[in-house]
Design brief:
The chain is an alpha/beta fold. It folds into two domains: 243 residues, 3-Layer(aba) Sandwich (QueA-like); 88 residues, QueA-like (Thrombin, subunit H), CATH 2.40.10. 21% of the residues lie in helices and 27% in strands. The chain contains eight helices and 17 strands. The strands form three sheets. A nine-stranded mixed β-sheet has the order 2-1-17-16-14-3-12-13-15. The protein has a six-stranded antiparallel beta barrel with strand order 5-6-7-10-9-8. Helix 7 crosses helix 8. The chain starts with 26 loop residues before the first strand and ends with a strand.
């Protein structure tokens, strides 16, 4: 299976640059795997496809203001870090740009008020521990106070590179149920839900169950190999509580369906089900890579956005439906001028 098999042409004007005023007013393309039919709906219609006893499983990770810009020691050259994953002991895995200016021991200063002597006034200092491939860099931070409070002051939301507009309201790159800080990108399928829509689902008898996967490089790293099977995913941290595991198993036992909100939720549930043959309380790191041929063990339905060409995410949805059906849906969405990617419209695959 070739990476180029998952390529498609997208007119640039269909890449959504800003979120809609009302989260749930986006369009919804309903894809029926059995009949291979497509329906054009609005996101609020999603409850028409759920039944009492079904479950929506949400990823309640919260995006940190993970993009910070500082100056390099000695040369004062500009360095940008995108924080991907905490490794412990104030050490982080980051994407550094430009990495070629960095080497072991290099210091970068952030939030300095004195540009001539930034080391004296910096609110945050990063020392490079290791430089790896594809811009990945391990750094150790030094600071006084609370790290996340400093990051709130210095950092900005790590919007994807295809978004060129400024985000006026930073909360619009968070789901309304975001709780656990740790992601470098939003689980964007969840951006369509409002508290009112979730309450309406609960009132219908639909279980709202939450898990966590902190979105990092594994989710959005491009596939740079010709043979799909040779792509290696980076690890991302996940957590499933005993309460959530028990509730998911109860839904399954009574014949309800598990609808995963987003590919990150799919990857979490399939990781745990793959380990134990069922959903259990669990935490750890996953590098699961789902592409056509994968046998799904936990998920019955998927709510997702439209994904980049040749990405691991379009491969995952092609595995959940079929590649032919997904590309039929994408071609339809392009013809009907759906909005694509992070702030774009949604799909329900059932």
């Amino acid at each position: 299976m070739k990476t180029d098999d998952f390529d498609y042409y997208l007119p640039e004007e269909l890449i959504a640059q800003t979120p809609l005023k009302d989260r749930s007013s986006s369009r919804l393309l309903v894809v029926d795997r059995e009949s291979e039919s497509l329906e054009d709906k609005h996101f609020t219609d999603i409850l028409d496809y759920l039944k009492p006893g079904d479950a929506l499983v949400l990823n309640e990770t919260k995006v940190i203001p993970a993009r910070i810009i500082g100056s390099k020691e000695e040369t004062h050259g500009v360095v940008e870090l995108l924080l991907l994953k905490e490794l412990g002991n104030d050490t982080w895995e980051c994407l550094a740009r430009p990495q070629k200016r960095l080497h072991k021991g290099t210091r970068v200063f952030f939030g300095a008020t004195d540009t001539e002597k930034p080391e004296d006034t910096a609110k945050l200092t990063a020392t490079v521990l290791e430089t790896l491939d594809e811009g990945i860099t391990h750094v150790k931070f030094e600071y006084k106070g609370i790290f996340l409070e400093i990051l709130d002051q210095l950092g900005t939301m790590p919007l994807p590179p295809y978004i060129h507009e400024q985000l006026e309201d930073q909360s619009r790159y968070q789901t309304v149920y975001a709780k656990n800080l740790g992601s470098a990108a939003a689980p964007t399928a969840g951006l369509h839900f409002t508290p009112e829509l979730l309450k309406k689902a609960e009132d219908m008898g639909i279980d709202i169950i939450k898990i966590t996967l902190h979105v990092g490089l594994g989710t959005f790293r491009p596939v740079n190999v010709e043979d799909v099977a040779k792509h290696k995913m980076h690890t991302e941290a996940y957590y499933v509580s005993k309460e959530s595991a028990d509730r998911i198993n109860e839904v399954k036992k009574r014949g309800g369906r598990i609808f995963a909100v987003g590919t990150t939720t799919v990857r979490t549930l399939e990781t745990v089900a793959g380990k134990y043959g069922e959903i259990r309380a669990d935490q750890g790191e996953t590098s699961i890579f789902i592409y056509p041929g994968y046998d799904f063990k936990a998920v019955d339905g998927l709510i997702t956005n439209f994904h980049l060409p040749k990405s691991t995410l379009i491969m995952l949805v092609s595995a959940f439906a079929t590649k032919d059906l997904i590309f039929k849906a994408y071609n339809h969405a392009i013809e009907e001028k759906y909005r694509f990617f992070s702030f774009g419209d949604a799909m329900l695959i059932k």
